[in-house]
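haha ok so turns out i had the wrong file open the whole time. this is the CORRECT one, sorry everyone. sequence first:
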Amino acid sequence: MDVKIRNSGADAGITIVEVSGRVDKFTAPILGEELEVLFRVGRGKIVVDMINAEAISNEGLLVLLAMHKSAVAYQCNFGLVRVPLCIQEVFDFAGLSGVFRTYRTEQEAVTAFSGGLNPDGAGKVVLEVIRADEKAFRKVELARGKVYRIGRLKENEICIEDTALSRYHARIFFEGNDVIIEDMNSANGTFLAALRGGGARKITRHVLKDGDRIELGESMLSVRKEQ
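then structure:
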């Protein structure tokens, strides 16, 4: 494994840690040591770019979990970007997909760490609800302190007439400065649409980011921040 450290091309004070090769019991401690140094010297925004990572072992997962806890302790924004499918599948299998903040591109991480969907910042978080037949379209402005249940029953805060949805399919809520979507044990699942090509990824819990598209049944939710 090789580790390279650089500053983000965007002027956002973000440190990019590029990882290549296998993250295993021999190499993961090296990554952990590099990240700990960055935390201690006060780097407040750190993104691990994993596009060239080939595999991750249990020891690698434990190191990433430890770094996640260190980031919380140091009050540092910490995330992963461009996670390969083979490693994302390991996260999913280990039940860690909702733990790590993951981003599809470096620019997406920059946006998130510079405000993203942070409801305390300027602007508002808007959810666009689109049915597959495009006969129904509406916008919902999300408010802090409220839980938005999504499903086909009228009792839901966001009711969608879609027979492929469960009665109570998913829910969206604020958690600190993040906006979370959680699947509510739906029959057909909740999916994060791929940014460019590829198939959608099934999610049980996900930190929403500006531009995310969520597929539920035959419908779609589009998330964005408006000024």
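The longest strand covers residues 45-56.
again sry for the mixup
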